[in-house]
Amino acid sequence: MPSVGVGPLLAETVALAILGLTFGVAWSVDGQRWWRPARQGATWFALGGILVIGLPEAIGAWSIPVLVLIGSSAPVVVEQANRYWRARRPVKATDHPEKLSDRDLMRRWRSSYDEMRRQGCPATDVLRLVQERSLLLDEVERRDPAGFEQWLERVAPRETQDR
Questions:
Q1: Same domain as 116, residue 54
Q2: CA distance 8 to 55
Q3: Contact between residue 96 and residue 127 where contact means Cβ atoms under 8 Å apart
Q4: pLDDT tens, 20-31?
Q5: Fewer CB in a 10 Å sphere around the end CB: N or C, the chain?
Q6: Chosen domain end from 39, 61, 83
């Protein structure tokens, strides 16, 4: 690996800081308060330059795993991963829907329908799911009676009107 040296590293860091400053000014929403985004842009670009250019020089082949670790442990990345995992994890059957969050309550409602519609679902399982769905509906109505009525009007099949 060729040696970068302190001079070129410093020059590239300054150049990236100026580029970050420019982006910060361009992205500032409020024209009178441009200094903070400009300072943040310069800081992040300079830090990124040091990590991408200086870190490989300092620690060699270990720089790639270290950069991956730094990037994957960033709070924004961790929060997105948690949000993705929570949205995809299955909600288990329950006899106590009052313990579920609103989101999990609706997810369980939808997944119980899919379980019931699955081919080859035994009658005993269908009966258990119907009873669970009854508890889920009662809980949805208890939490938000007005919203429940609106939701029911939206999703329930319309009755045919007498002529």
A1: no
A2: 14
A3: no
A4: 888 888 877 766
A5: C
A6: 83
